[in-house]
Amino acid sequence: MTEPINHLITTNCFGHYQRQQERAYQYQVKPPLRTLIESIPPMLWHDIKGITLHPDLGFTSRARFNNLEQLYQWLGGRSQTYNTHNLPYLNWKIARFNKTLNIEDLRPHCAQFPAPQLLKKFGINE
Questions:
Q1: Summary count for the chain: helices (H), strands (E)
Q2: Residues paired with 51 in a beta bridge
Q3: What's the predicted TM-score (pTM) here?
Q4: What is the rounded CA–CA span in Å between residue 80 and residue 77?
Q5: Which of 70, 65, 79 shows the shortest CA–CA distance to 28?
Q6: Is the torsion defined by CA of 39, 42, 47, 48 positive or negative?
Q7: Interior CA angle at 40 toward 74 and 88, to 5°?
Q8: Residue 40 vs residues 8, 54, 79, 92: alpha-carbon distances, Å
């Protein structure tokens, strides 16, 4: 007699869990810097090196990252985080920063940047 009841409870709990997951994905925070990184072809991510965060990029921290791939991971890229309040960058994000960033906004904060010819080859306008 308890098996049907347990089955209903388990099914209800699983449905609730699925709805919570969908909601978490809908409200995922995505800063302008992450949007810019996603617009750059991943083949170039290891060519852009020594990125230092700056208020011009939407952050109060002066953290330094070896390459764009490392910065993208720190910004929550490629992670399936269900609780977006725990992403590491949120402590240093400027709350009202909503400027659309382009490649030229990133260039002054990098120690090494690909040559303009390489950027044009990948269709990135300067």
A1: 5, 2
A2: 65
A3: 0.72
A4: 9
A5: 79
A6: positive
A7: 10
A8: 48, 19, 18, 23
Place of tokens 């007699």: 1
- Read off the pLDDT band of 122 (50, 70, 90): confident
Structure tokens at 10: 């388990």
Hey, which residues does 59 pair with through a beta bridge? 93
Which amino acid does the sequence have at 13?
C
pLDDT score, position 38: 94
Domain map (residue ranges) of the chain = 1-28, 31-121
Span 47-96, pLDDT tens digits: 999 999 999 999 999 999 999 999 999 998 877 655 656 778 888 999 89
